[in-house]
């Protein structure tokens, strides 16, 4: 089974439940992007990050941008 979640706290809880044997799913996908905001017409990852910064969801920070890009690429 594949577990899909949309925030990091849920991802951490699912990974813990897998580690202690409560669930048997070892495939946990986390997409931290908020799909209720912004435009989705052919955007790049950098453009999406800029959109979320304009909405105040994320801050203009290089470290946070790198984490955001990695979370989108691995989903």
Features:
single chain; 75 residues; mainly alpha; elongated
Note down, in words, how this protein is organized.
The chain has about 80 residues and is mainly alpha-helical. It has 3 helices and 2 strands; from the N terminus they run E-H-E-H-H. A two-stranded parallel ribbon has the order 1-2. The radius of gyration is 14 Å and the shape is elongated.
Fraction of residues in β-strands: 5-15%
Structural class: mainly alpha
> Looking at the structure, what is the overall shape?
elongated
> What is the share of helical residues?
40-55%
DSSP strand count: 2
Reading side by side through the largest sheet, how are the strands ordered? 1-2
Unreliable spans are none
Sketch the major β-sheet: 2 strands, parallel
Please write the string of helix (H) and strand (E) elements.
EHEHH
What is the CA-CA span between the terminal residues?
16 Å
The number of helical runs is 3
What is the alpha-carbon Rg in Å? 14 Å
Task: Offer a concise description of the structure.
The chain is mainly alpha-helical. The chain has helices spanning 8-19, 45-54, 62-73; strands at residues 2-5, 27-30. The model has no long low-confidence stretch (mean pLDDT 76).
Provide the fold topology.
Elements (H helix, E strand, L loop, with lengths): L1 E4 L2 H12 L7 E4 L14 H10 L7 H12 L2
Parallel strand pairs: 1-2
């Amino acid at each position: 089974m594949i577990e899909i979640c949309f925030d990091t706290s849920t991802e951490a809880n699912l990974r813990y439940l897998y580690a202690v044997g409560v669930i048997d799913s070892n495939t946990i996908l986390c997409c931290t992007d908020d799909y209720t905001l912004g435009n989705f017409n052919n955007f790049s990852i950098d453009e999406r990050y800029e959109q979320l910064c304009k909405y105040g969801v994320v801050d203009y920070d290089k470290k946070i941008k790198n984490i955001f890009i990695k979370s989108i690429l691995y989903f």
